[in-house]
Amino acid sequence: MANVRFAPILRASVGGSKQVAAQGNTLGEVLADLFERYPTLKQQIQPDNELSRFINIYVNDQDVRYLQGLETVVGANDTVILLPAMAGGR
Description:
Layout: E1 2-6, E2 19-22, H1 27-37, H2 39-45, E3 55-59, E4 62-63, E5 79-84
Parallel strand pairs: 1-5
Antiparallel strand pairs: 1-2, 3-4, 3-5
Helix pairs in contact: 1-2
């Protein structure tokens, strides 16, 4: 199982956990496993079956936008990080 880490703002959707294990051979399968267990997470990560442009997703510190997106291979010892994009300032 891959380890999935959550930014603090997403932790309420996963019962306050910083990290959970998820099954799947691709990022899409890992996310599907998460969404089955934590349905409110889907609206934040993948509304309308597309990855939100406001969430950065990394597999082993590599941005999936530069890999294969939802088809990115995820191994049993890999780490997936879900990190909302930050904006603001003056």
